[in-house]
Amino acid sequence: MSYTCKIDGKLKIDVRDFNFYYGNKKALSDLNFCVKENTILALIGPSGSGKTTLARCFNRMHDLYPNNHYEGRILIDNKDILDPKIDLIELRNKIGMVFQKPTAFPMSIFENVAFGLKLIGIKNKTELEDRVVQALKGAALWDEVKDRLNKLATNLSGGQQQRLCIARAIAVNPEVLVFDESTASLDPISTSKIEDLMIEASKKLTIIAVTHNLQQAARISEYTLFLMNGEAIEYDKTDVIFTNPKDKRTQNYIMGKFG
Amino acid sequence: MSKRRFLNYLGLTVSTLSALIGLFFLFWIIISLIYKGFHYLNWNVFTQNAVAPGDNGGGLKFAILGQLEVVGIASLIGIPIGLLAGIYLSEYGKDSFTSNVIRNICDAMTSIPSIIIGIFIYALLVVPMGNFSALAGSVALSILMIPIVISSVDNILRLVPNELREAAYALGAPKYVVIFKVVVKEAIVGIISAILIAISRVLGETAPLLFTSFNSNFESYKLNKPIGTLTVTMYDYAMGPYDNWHHLAWAAAIILTFSVLLFNIASRLFSYWRFSH
Questions:
Q1: In this structure, are strands A11-22 and A68-76 parallel, antiparallel, or unpaired?
Q2: Chain A, nearest residue to B163 by Cα
Q3: CATH code, domain carrying A240
Q4: Is A30 a domain residue?
Q5: pLDDT tens profile A63-109
Q6: CA separation for the pair A7, A34 (Å, rounded)
Q7: pTM of this prediction?
């Protein structure tokens, strides 16, 4: 399939002739799209369309389980991250991920944020503290937890835990951050806080956000990719997708006729 | 009364009665133990040496320390092996053919009569070494512990949500960091109670020690020599002809029962315990 990348800015991620298989089952087929640097790309589509599957390709999460395989190329800064020789630990330092459910580790708030920093080799105590504080401020959580950094993180509320996960992810200064329906289990106030964080973070890094919530995609993203049955149906600027979709299926989905 | 309600009452009555029968015997044992044995329990029991057959007085000092040594060394052997094997099954082997075979063997091993393990170690260690030994007793008990620790650690770790592992991997953590810093930490309360249960399980064992650590009336804590333990001493004293021995056997029974109870209660408390600092 011939394809030209049309974005108005610097290219960050380039997905070419990409297929993904769970065992023999093809889950994503023939994807071609590119992502602009320092922006938010929303992945939308009905359940089972492959949004999460696609999101989990960028940090090679599928490698944790046997029999999955990728075809084609995903270039980040012109480097193919599907190359079998690539160091997955290094890749995952650069491509962060925030999951649907909050996943606070069973350790203190401080230790949670320091977890990734220690992995990239930051041992100096002052530097560690500085970056933890910075990350917690960046995730708009600092004011709520500054007096109890040594308390167990799993005692925080769901929304706070999710912001802690964002703090943990941004602490290591990733280049790309993948949000996999990260607000799906949160109340509206927590959701709006996290949306603000995503918009703020997208000034410095590239965000890919899987969402079921179309209003959310419209509120936060600059580009939107609409997936169905593992295929990319339409990819464009978000306002075009929502106001003037070219494909009938996109139109039906946006109108709420299925999904 | 409708049939459904009748069956409901019938089920409730039968199961309540069954529970009461079980509890009745348990309390009977504990109460008669306290009633008949408690007055033989005194400070001398803990501090006095064993005495020659027929003499009065004396205590269980050798047996108590011997018990601690045998169970302690059994734990030092059994817990690390069980723990690491449990981690292997849950985190590396997962649902592979090999791990399922190991799981089935573990289940089978937990139901092997413990005296058979005693005889096995008798052939494996006692015969080649030429005499009964504390080490042989510890190895026999550790073989009893290992499958218990493996199965419980395996089950506990598999309860840790996969999202937590993925979140750690997503930060670029290597597998050993994911396992030891996140997964094991998340399950630590369950792991410790499993270990306490395994210890309390072997604490009351007599059969595997009869053929391995045997018994000793002398103070010796050498690994390559026979050693007295509470369980075997109780068995010997209870079977013996002297009243003094019977009194000490009662005391040993009380000490053992309450140690086992204590370990069980401790593991329960530990399960309820949550970080609160």
A1: antiparallel
A2: A103
A3: 3.40.50.300
A4: no
A5: 999 899 999 999 999 999 999 999 999 999 999 999 999 999 999 99
A6: 8
A7: 0.86
